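Batch manifest, entry 17 of 40.
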Amino acid sequence: MRKWRKMAVGGLLLAMMLGLAACLDGGNPQEVAVAANLAEVAVAEPTPEPTPEPTESEEDSDTSTAKETDTEEIPPESEEDGDNTTTEETAAAEEIPLPVGLEQAVVERVIDGDTIVLTNGERVRFIGIDAPEIGEPGADLATEFVRNQIDGQTVWLSSSGNDRDSFGRLRRYVWVEMPTDMDDSAQIQAKQLNAMLLAEGLAVVWTPSGGQPTPLLNPTPQPTATAEPQNIGIISAPNQGRRGQDLTITFQGEPNTEYNLSVVSAAGNTLTADGLGTTTANASGVATWTWRVGSRTGAGNQRAVITGGGVRVEHTIQIVVN
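Output type: structure tokens
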């Protein structure tokens, strides 16, 4: 801007000098007009020169610089050192010790309402109870109850001291949950399967023949009103039978109570002869069954089992083949 102003002042002085010279030289009108025009041009403000826009390369350079300035390398977060073991893993690693006299096992399968097989091959017979045999009334219910409770599950076993029965089976109390006190009545009723079967009416208290009574650990108390009368039992029954012979068993029970008679052959099969099954005792409590020995029945001892009214009575009949 200063440059243009200096040129304007110089032009003005030049025009004045030319005009003065023209006047002195005789006042030529054309020369005077030229001088005047030069003066006006000299005095006029010059158009400022436009500021040049930055080139594309300069913009890229500035942008690149800005990006380089904004971009800072962030160091990775340092991993915390130390023990990363979770609380759950620590707890799982700690084993709860078994109470004295208790062993842990896994059930492979359920045979019936009072016998199971463990994954180690051992068979276990429940202590102190007797559930219906397969084919007898109530057997399916007892077996299904046990299966729903422990089939394929972990169980806890305790003994009464007499370790095995005459068949080599382990004699055990079976617990569906590990008890903290095996003498606690509340835990027995809630966790011991032997007591649970009694409470559900799916088994009866049982004492091995020829041995000392095996008391169940605090079994479910039975109401006094339903206690078994002393006269309940078999009135008459044959000790021996032959093919084609009619056999009769007479039983003294409670009046108007249903009782069932099932007969198991020496081969372990439950007989289906007419006359066997469920009948109702009369007003005096007497129940009678009569059936015929099959013509193909094999020799050996048959086992007659009477159940009902909370009792179970067995009688052996020897079958003789001529």
